[in-house]
Specification:
Blueprint (H helix, E strand, L loop, with lengths): L4 E2 L9 H10 L18 H18 L5 E6 L2 H13 L6 E5 L2 H12 L3 E6 L23 E4 L1 E2 L4 E2 L11 E4 L16 E5 L10 E6 H4 L12 H6 L9 H16 L2 H22 L16 E4 L4 H13 L2 E2 L10 E4 L6 H18 L1
Parallel strand pairs: 1-12, 3-4, 3-5, 5-8, 8-9
Antiparallel strand pairs: 2-10, 6-7, 9-10, 11-13
Helix pairs in contact: 1-7, 2-7, 3-4, 8-10
Bound molecules: 4'-deoxy-4'-aminopyridoxal-5'-phosphate.
């Protein structure tokens, strides 16, 4: 088998064991004579998958009964507008912290609705860091505070989350969900596109405090209301059955490995392997504030774009895929999500050392 060293930003690497289980079960799921994507979402087999996926998320992240766990469609991007539509009531505003490309996209949707109030903006500094908790002053009448916990493109993350008191904190955790231990109780809502750490694209995981679900205005469309999906166990309409199935397998796999705490330990080790190389010489250019550096998306540059192209091309010859930085910023990015093996990260570090020797 020729598995790539997969550094894609998303869709991204999934655990080989999960893919093999899905493969083994593909043509005959639970003795039904059908695959999981050929059967009714209302049947007993899929009902079990949906329940087990929900339960696995709850166990792994320590989600209490005060929260709903929902599996929605439209990716994380639909959440950018569903959040203000549901949670920011008539005549009120929500606080937004702008840390980069993804926080900006969420902010834009709230601005379209006339609901946004920016309380911290990293843009003038070039989005090099996330703010410290002490830098944030929450508006007393804010409906919520929105953050992006890990900026997939910029390669920065919060090491400590803002203290928002009684104002609900809402986080887009698309690129670091289940990569590190967090206290769900500190959040009013967490959402994530599945395609980085927990499954395939087209599925969004939403964890929302039950009292917040009731805020939505009556005249909001049925599909856009969290209450619709909460009342119907994420099956108001036909859900992304494949996505929920894979998410369940990924969660059960992570549990077998020791849960989110075990993932965090490995993820910190993996990130340290790359940052040690990057910090080891001026050949590699990293501009982000060290405290804010992401352990999921490691971003750097080389002296010239030609050298970056050469690096990416030579990496590809070594079966290392997905290292090109996002088209909006260029440079190099290694996304090292939960399912990227430490051996792949070590192989990349070894290649970096070799590349520096030859080109430095
Ligand atoms: N938020 C973050 C932090 C992301 O990285 C992404 C996707 N790269 C999104 C939101 C958008 O997710 P989707 O494509 O599932 O809408």
């Amino acid at each position: 088998m020729n598995r790539a060293h997969n550094f894609n930003a998303g869709p991204a690497a999934l655990p080989l064991e999960v893919l093999q289980t899905a493969q083994a079960e593909l043509t005959d799921f639970m003795g039904s004579g059908m695959s999981v994507i050929e059967m009714s979402h209302r049947g007993k087999e899929f009902d079990q998958v949906n329940n087990e996926a929900n339960a696995a998320v709850r166990r792994l992240m320590g989600v209490s009964d005060d929260y709903e766990v929902l599996f929605l469609q439209g990716g994380a991007s639909l959440q950018f507008c569903m959040v203000p539509m549901n949670l920011c009531r008539e005549g009120k505003k929500a606080d937004y912290i702008n840390t980069g490309a993804w926080a900006s996209k969420a902010l834009k949707e709230a601005q379209i609705l006339g609901k946004a109030n920016v309380i911290w903006d990293g843009k003038p500094e070039g989005f090099l860091r996330c703010p410290d908790a002490g830098e944030i002053t929450v508006s007393p009448d804010a409906e919520y505070v929105h953050i992006c916990s890990n900026e997939t493109i910029g390669g920065i993350r919060y090491t400590e989350f803002p203290e928002t008191g009684s104002v609900p904190l809402i986080a887009d955790m698309s690129s670091d969900i289940m990569s590190r231990v967090i206290d769900v109780n500190k959040f009013g809502m967490i959402y994530a596109g599945a395609q980085k750490n927990i499954g395939p694209s087209g599925l969004a995981l939403v964890i929302i405090r039950k009292d917040l679900i009731e805020r939505a205005p009556e005249n909001l469309s049925t599909m856009l209301k969290y209450s619709t999906h909460a009342k119907n166990a994420s099956m108001f309409n036909t859900p992304n059955t494949w996505g929920i199935y894979i998410l369940k397998l990924v969660c059960e796999h992570v549990e077998k490995l020791g849960g989110v705490a075990a993932m965090q330990k490995i993820n910190e080790e993996k990130a340290a392997i790359l940052y040690n190389v990057l910090d080891g010489s001026d050949f590699w250019k990293t501009v982000m504030d060290k405290k804010s550096r992401s352990i999921m998306n490691v971003v750097w540059r080389l002296e010239t774009e030609e050298l970056e192209k050469k690096f990416i091309a030579e990496a590809k010859e070594r079966n290392m895929i997905g290292l090109k930085g996002h088209r909006s910023v260029g440079g190099i990015r290694a996304s090292i999500y939960n399912a990227v093996p430490k051996a792949s990260v070590q192989a990349l570090a070894d290649f970096m050392n070799e590349f520096e020797k030859q080109n430095g």
